Amino acid sequence: MSFSSKFVENNLSVEELKQNFTEMDRHYPIAIYQMGKVGSATILHSLQELNLPNPVFHVHLLSAQNLEISTASFISRNLPLTLQLKHGKILRDYLDSRENASLKVITAVREPIGQLISSVFQNLKVDFTQFIDADENLKVKEIKDYIYNLICQYDVRDPGKNCNWFDREFKQALDIDVYQYQFDPKLAYTAFSKNNLDILVLRLESSQNWSEILTNFLNLEKPLKIIKTNTSDDKNYGDSYKDILSSLKFPVSVLDRIYSSKYCQHFYTKEEIEQFVNKWKMKT
Q: How far is residue 264's CA from residue 273's CA, in Å, rounded to a whole number?
């Protein structure tokens, strides 16, 4: 069993994992490092099937400040730390203990409205318990109203919004500004290096091309088989999710504000943004 498999399946302690830093020096670690609900679990499980000698980390947070804030939040609510948080702590310690540590980073983006809706559903049982009744049924109308108001009030200047994840989190953690590197929406990915960090930026909307892109980025001997995992459609809330996804519509002024963000303008073409607007806009 590879180090990566032991890490995920046995949920090893922080202390036990730190003992594997020497193995990480021998086999460069791979970090699947991105905001939630942009296909990270799919990439993780696809790589796990290869049983690579490289340790594979699955993290949503890697900056020291944000790891501390999130950890304190879980502890204050008497919740166990997520595996992603544990991964983040280990990888943060590893990077801080090595000068110019080698790391391959896989990150992905998703248009912000779809990501936000999926994220709300993913976190219902932790952050939105008010939308689940005593019989474990979802209060669909209340969820829909909440998401509608959340998106209508979306402020692209708010550092906490998903469109600012790269500035708030990624840049802090790795001292890399992805916006300094050209992204060709037609290729739907970009790859670049800084120091000993190799960075790959993907788009969820182009996941049909992930196999070839990831195979080349990781120098794999054979094509990577993509195994879709943790999709909202397959969850027990799938029907409610699909209903809200198809019925939620927003004023064009709201959509124009969101899609004018630096994030959307960098990763999507004008034509793609127009398609997003047409998908989500209220019919006149």
A: 8
Say how many C-beta atoms besides its own lie within 10 A of residue 231's C-beta. 14
Token digits of residue 235: 């969850």
Partnered with residue 81 across adjacent β-strands are none
Q: What DSSP state is assigned to residue 232?
A: G
pLDDT in tens, 64-92: 999 999 999 999 999 899 989 988 998 99
Helix H or strand E segment including 201: strand 197-203
> What's the token pair of residue 7?
């890490």
DSSP 193: E
Cα 22 to chain centroid distance, Å, stands at 28
**Mean per-residue pLDDT for 148-164?**
97
Chain centre distance of CA 29: 18
| Nearest residue to 59 (alpha-carbon basis) of 51, 75, 70, 46 | 70
Q: Which two tokens stand for residue 45?
A: 């499980």
pTM of the model: 0.90
Give CA–CA dist 195/201, Å, rounded: 17
